[in-house]
Amino acid sequence: MEEAETQIWVQQLRDVSSSDLETGDNNSTNISSSSDNNRSLYRTQLTELPIDMQFNEGHKLAIITYSILMIFSAVANISVFCVIIR
């Protein structure tokens, strides 16, 4: 049911966009109230991500750790490369 509502919302959005292009109207006043409800439901679903998909302290730690490891490996690889060239 949720996927069907999303498809209906996308189709209505396309219809409104195409009619706005034809008439040159920038106001989307011809969207029905049901599509407004679907749009707000869709926005709510987009903003409420599961906790493991939200950016948090664990993600910051992973980014910092992998950055430090990348710098360390770059220094080590450059030093090995210099030894090989000599």
What does this structure look like?
- The chain is mainly alpha-helical and 86 residues long.
- It folds into two domains: 1-48; 50-86.
- The chain is built from three helices and no strands.
- The chain has helices at residues 2-23, 33-47, 57-85.
- Helix 1 (2-23) crosses helix 2 (33-47).
- The radius of gyration is 25 Å and the shape is elongated.
- The mean pLDDT is 75.
Shape: elongated
Q: Based on DSSP secondary structure assignment, what is the total number of beta strands?
A: 0
Would you tell me the overall average pLDDT?
75
Strand content: under 5%
Distance between the termini: 67 Å
Number of domains: 2
The sequence of SSEs as H and E is HHH
Structural class: mainly alpha
Gyration radius (Cα, Å) is 25 Å
Contiguous runs where pLDDT drops below 50 for at least 5 residues: none
Q: Report the helical percentage.
A: over 70%
Q: How many helix segments?
A: 3
Main beta sheet: strand number and arrangement? Answer: none
